[in-house]
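Retry 2 of 3 after timeout on previous attempt. Resubmitting structure tokens to design endpoint.
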């Protein structure tokens, strides 16, 4: 079914948020400190992303950046919109609604159908100890059942290089259910016949591993310059797909934020 212009505009806006979720983290976490006080941080930037996971073509997109904490309520590019069920100096347990990105049929080889974006229900737990932050999360699609489930595990180590400069190296991996892997990386018999690609029906497994370095520099007490660069390497469940043109690709973001 053809999309109307308003639908395309809505999906484009949602994808902007998605890309920022993929790259940004909230203000660097500090182990052995009290949870961040209430704040509102808004900004804008630009990111470099592949057209779909495994694409060898890239695009530059403007991105919204946001980090809001109001009591137990939060809205963050890293975590979506939700609530902290438990929030202490060493442990945070939360639930949120986020967006699971698909791709347009125009971004993949001819004969391959697009994949619908979906709202996802996300739960996560973050533990802070000895200066490091470990986060375990799981996101289940709720508006498009065939999108499935993904789970992630990441480790980060925020470092205050100076009074104004924070550097956060991190590494993470993502596991995908068979339903998610089929929806995003699979090639159905009909698509194989139409595209000339081999049929691919993946099972569940680890989808990727990512290394990222985030940087935040406080220009003033309210204005910060934020950036992130990283490398994503697709693993077997994704890398074996005939859709994948490039198993390893860079990601990058640069933006400016203002804290009220």
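Retry 2 succeeded. Sequence:
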């Amino acid at each position: 079914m053809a999309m109307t212009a308003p639908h395309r505009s809505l999906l484009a806006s949602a994808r902007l948020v998605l890309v920022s979720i993929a790259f940004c983290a909230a203000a660097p976490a500090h182990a052995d400190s009290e949870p961040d006080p209430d704040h509102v941080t808004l900004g804008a930037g630009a990111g470099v992303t592949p057209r779909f996971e495994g694409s060898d073509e890239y695009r530059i997109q403007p991105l919204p950046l946001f980090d809001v904490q109001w009591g137990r309520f939060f809205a963050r590019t890293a975590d979506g919109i939700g609530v902290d069920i438990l929030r202490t100096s060493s442990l945070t347990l939360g639930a949120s609604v986020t967006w699971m990105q698909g791709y347009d049929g125009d971004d993949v080889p001819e004969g391959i159908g697009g994949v619908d974006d979906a709202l996802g229900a996300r739960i996560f737990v973050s533990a802070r100890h000895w200066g490091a932050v470990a986060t375990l999360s799981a996101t289940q699609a709720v508006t498009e059942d065939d999108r499935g489930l993904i789970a992630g595990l990441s480790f980060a180590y925020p470092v205050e290089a100076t009074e104004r400069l924070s550097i956060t190296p991190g590494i993470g991996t993502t596991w995908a259910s068979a339903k998610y892997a089929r929806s995003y990386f699979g090639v159905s018999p009909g698509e194989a016949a139409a595209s000339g690609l081999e049929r691919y029906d993946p099972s569940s497994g680890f989808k990727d591993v990512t290394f990222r370095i985030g940087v935040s520099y406080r220009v003033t007490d309210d204005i910060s310059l934020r950036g992130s660069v990283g490398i994503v390497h697709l693993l077997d469940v994704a890398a074996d797909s005939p859709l994948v043109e490039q198993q390893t690709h860079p990601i990058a973001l640069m933006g400016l934020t203002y804290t009220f």
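Attempt log closed. Residues 1-34 have pLDDT under 50 and may be disordered.
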